[in-house]
């Protein structure tokens, strides 16, 4: 037990990182667009996520939407950047891998804290958990980097007319999902490193084969 403190920390960090990954995936505030024309986008601010775009409007632009209008990315649309669809897949993969990493860590820690000494099984599960955490972190890092690059270069998106969005903003900034994603990446990579660093203690009674 005394040799698995880092792996216990890996479980805590990995769990928080996985939760933050899930939160960032559900947020629409990836890119915050500032627009000059407030005829439809009343607040002058629109949010571009990886699943949908939203903005506040005081016009009845669509049935059922009187103040906040959201348009989901349904299916594949050629006008939507490919990195948005790639981000959807990568974050879903990251969420799944993070869950597998947490599960593998729980299994290994359960063996240790219940006194079930099985060197090969425990070591392998920590290794598997470490690889899952690191892969999950990389899967989050790619869409976070893409979106941050798009924000810093003020890249435009040719939205279809049904989105009621301008093709380019006057300015844009990183939304809350990007820093949350960055923290998730750091935590997942740390938890992966801690898991991979586990070494089964060698005692005097242990016979190495």
Automatic annotation (TrEMBL):
Gene3D superfamilies: 1.20.140.150. It is a multi-pass membrane protein. GO terms for cellular component: bicellular tight junction; plasma membrane. The keyword Acetylation does not apply. It comes from the Eukaryota. It is found in: Cell junction, Tight junction; Cell membrane. Its main location: other. Keywords: Cell junction, Cell membrane, Membrane, Tight junction, Transmembrane, Transmembrane helix. The chain crosses the membrane at residues 6-28, 40-59, 84-109, 121-146, 176-200. The gene is Cldn34. GO terms for molecular function: structural molecule activity. This is CLD34 protein. Coiled coil: none annotated.
């Amino acid at each position: 037990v005394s040799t698995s403190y880092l792996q216990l920390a890996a479980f805590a960090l990995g769990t928080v990182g996985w939760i933050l990954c899930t939160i960032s995936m559900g947020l629409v505030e990836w890119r915050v667009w500032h627009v000059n024309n407030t005829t439809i986008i009343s607040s002058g601010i629109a949010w571009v996520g990886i699943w949908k775009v939203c903005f506040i409007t005081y016009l009845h632009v669509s049935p059922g939407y009187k103040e906040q209008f959201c348009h989901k990315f349904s299916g594949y649309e050629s006008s939507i950047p490919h990195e948005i669809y790639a981000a959807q897949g990568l974050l879903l993969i990251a969420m799944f891998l993070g869950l597998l990493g947490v599960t593998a860590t729980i299994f290994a820690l359960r063996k240790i804290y219940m006194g079930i000494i099985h060197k090969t099984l425990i070591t392998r599960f920590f290794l598997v958990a470490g690889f899952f955490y690191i892969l999950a972190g990389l899967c989050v890092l790619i869409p976070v980097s893409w979106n941050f690059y798009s924000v810093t270069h003020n890249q435009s998106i040719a939205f279809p007319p049904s989105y009621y969005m301008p093709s380019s903003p006057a300015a844009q900034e990183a939304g809350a999902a990007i820093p949350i994603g960055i923290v998730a990446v750091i935590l997942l990579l740390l938890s992966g490193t801690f898991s991979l660093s586990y070494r089964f203690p060698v005692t005097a009674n242990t016979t190495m084969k």
